[in-house]
Amino acid sequence: MNLAKLHTILLLGCSLLVASLTGCAPATTAQTQQEEELLPIKTILVLPVEIATESGTRSPQEKAQLEQGQRVLDTILAEQFASNEKITFLTEGQRDSFNKEFANCRTTAAVTICRTYKAEAVLICSVQRFRERDGDEYSAATPASVSFNYKLIMAGSGQVLCSGAFNETQQPLLSDIFQFADKASKRGVRWINAEALLREGAQKKFANCPYLKK
Questions:
Q1: Which residue would you say has higher pLDDT here, 175 or 204?
Q2: Residue 4 pLDDT > 50, yes or no?
Q3: Please, are residues 196 and 166 in contact by the beta-carbon 8 Å criterion?
Q4: Of 18, 82, 179, 193, which has the fewest Cβ atoms less than 10 A away?
Q5: Within a 10 A sphere around the Cβ of 130, how many other Cβ atoms?
Q6: Burial class of residue 133 (count of CB atoms within 10 Å of its CB; 0-12, 13-18, 19+)
Q7: Predicted pLDDT at 129
Q8: Higher pLDDT, 20 or 210
Q9: Which residues contact 138 (CB under 8 A, 6 or more apart)?
Q10: What pLDDT does 132 receive?
């Protein structure tokens, strides 16, 4: 048996195993109950993506990578929420007038911006890591690696309505049998780039926040 056939058999076997382990999970009403308890948020303001501040210095290469990740996530947000009528976007120029407050406390500044622009909640996102893969989609010496987080904050009280974080360095599919079927269906048997990994993470995390749904 050649290697290509063996690889195909292994992938099929793993898919069937994951399906058998996850296919009989009982349904729950937790999501329905959560949606019934939602606050009536009708207007959400999205701020430009920030680069996370950390102690220590970054190399010029790391800074360039983070700035690229910042631009990519801004684009992803614009695309993902383009058709959501309750969501609007604050420009970088508008945000700059609040820089002094952001330096002291991002949450306080976000609430202030939200009130100024008459929105009920504000979405803030930051990128911690954006490292491109080294190699092509079938042979990567170093895989793509990204990390970001978000908070959706209510203007009136500063209450965090939703939050989430995504932190992943792509691993070979067979390294995690329980994630195999989900990731294989999205990525195929290949190494994706950093933008695709960030896009996948953003879609996954924002889908868990009921306030960001249409």
A1: 204
A2: no
A3: no
A4: 82
A5: 26
A6: buried
A7: 94
A8: 210
A9: 190, 191
A10: 87
Q: Using N-to-C axis directions, what is the helix angle for 180-187 and 3-22, rounded to 10°?
A: 120
Counting other chains too, the contacts that 180-187 makes at CB distance below 8 Å and 24 or more residues apart are 180/14, 180/15, 180/18, 181/14, 181/15, 181/18, 181/19, 181/22, 184/11, 184/15
Task: Please state which of the ranges 15-24, 68-77, 97-106, 163-172 shows the lowest mean pLDDT.
Answer: 15-24
Q: Kindly state the percentage of the chain with pLDDT values over 90.
A: 38
CB contact at 8 A, 104 and 29:
no
Burial class (CB in 10 A: 0-12, 13-18, 19+), 12: exposed
Largest Cα span, the chain: 68
| CA 129 vs CA 58, 163, 167: distances in Å | 11, 18, 8
Q: Percent of the chain having pLDDT more than 70?
A: 64
In 10-157 the beta strands, taken as DSSP E runs, fall at 44-46, 50-51, 87-89, 121-131, 134-136, 139-142, 145-154
> Nearest CA to 47 among 101, 6, 4?
101
Phi–psi pair at 79, nearest 5 degrees: -70, -45
Which two tokens mark 18?
């994951």
The first and second tokens of residue 143, run together, are 């895989």
Q: How far apart are CA 132 and CA 141, in angstroms?
A: 11
**For 128, which DSSP code?**
E
User: Is residue 44 classed as helix, strand or coil in its secondary structure?
Assistant: strand
DSSP-based helix, strand, coil % in the chain, nearest 5: 45, 20, 30
